Amino acid sequence: MDGFVPNQDAWKTVRDLKRLFGARLGYCKACPFRAECIAVVKPSQAMFDGIAGGRLWCNGLVIDALDDVSDDELAEPKLRPSCGTEAGAKSHSRNDERICPSCRQAAREMDARRQAEKPKQQEQLQLDFAGTT
Question: What is the pTM (predicted TM-score) of this model?
Answer without folding.
Answer: 0.56
